[in-house]
Design a protein that fits this description.
alpha+beta; Umud Fragment, subunit A; 8-stranded antiparallel β-sheet; 4-stranded antiparallel β-sheet; 4 helices; 20% helix; transmembrane helix
Length: 274
């Protein structure tokens, strides 16, 4: 064999091992950094790949979570605390205008007590209103119904009424005294909430409110078919169990946002029912 032919190095047998290559950054005596376990690297790589590869999926999940939480909260609020309604008529002008949106406190009359002067929304169980026309079905009717059900849209049903409570159970309500004023339990009241644009027409009545019922009247007296107009139907009284609640806030339009007053000063001198 020629002398200049490369020879295969002979294996060492002195017990020494080959020294691995050390990175240039390693200092004297430093060994290589321990390798990261393969299973950990794979898991991190997989996570990074999912996040980087599907940003839209993550965004959609966040939006869906927010929507679900909003719907659940709205449903709970609508069921137990507040419910939205809109005003279709002029019977409560100037307190409420046509197409106002209001929020009704469902905690009145229970567990919180009802007061004279409260504006209330109640179900028409006695036929004060004409039958509602059949609902027209459109391509998005189910969406509107769903949003109304969870409380995100006001209830557009025509089978609710809104009036002001004048007489509580046991109250003796009379119209009118010699001065043309309404009296409750013998005390005349100055009804500051009545629409001042028109002089109310006098419609005489003399009633005592039965237990479990209330006497209601509209603020726009000449344009309100209230308890006075339905005395032939259960005396014109409204059952407490039919009350949805107390109208608390005008929420729309924006230039009319305000809380609704129950005018406690009007009734402060009225004695309790006997």
């Amino acid at each position: 064999m020629p002398e200049n032919h490369a020879r295969k190095p002979e294996p060492r047998h002195d017990g020494a091992s080959e020294t691995p290559a050390v990175p240039a950054s390693a200092g004297p005596g430093e060994g290589p950094e321990p390798a990261e376990p393969v299973h950990r690297r794979n898991r991190q790589t997989s996570k990074a790949g999912r996040s980087a590869g599907n940003p839209l999926l993550g965004w959609l999940k966040e939006i869906a979570t927010v929507v679900v939480i909003a719907v659940v909260l709205s449903f709970l609020i609508k069921t137990f605390l507040f419910r939205a309604f809109f005003i279709p008529s002029e019977s409560m002008v100037n307190t409420l205008d046509v197409d106002d949106r209001i929020f009704v406190n469902l905690l009145v009359p229970e567990p919180f007590a009802l007061s004279r002067g409260d504006v209330v929304v109640f179900r028409d169980t006695k036929g004060w209103l004409p039958p509602a026309p059949p609902k027209t079905q459109g391509p998005f009717t189910w969406v509107q119904d769903g949003l109304t059900f969870v409380g995100l849209l006001p209830d557009n049903s025509e089978q609710h009424l809104v009036k002001r409570v004048i007489g509580l159970p046991g109250d003796h309500v009379v119209c009118c005294d010699a001065g043309g004023k309404l009296t409750i339990n013998g005390t005349a009241v100055d009804e500051a909430y009545i629409n001042s644009a028109e002089v109310p027409q006098v419609r005489n009545f003399d009633v005592t409110v039965p237990e479990g019922k209330v006497w209601v009247m509209g603020d726009n007296r000449n344009h309100s078919a209230d308890s006075r107009a339905h005395m032939e139907t259960d005396g014109g009284f409204v059952d407490l169990k039919d009350l949805e609640g107390k109208a608390a806030v005008i929420a729309w339009p924006l230039n009319r946002i305000k809380t609704l007053d129950n005018y406690p000063d009007v009734f402060k001198n009225v004695p309790a029912a006997r």
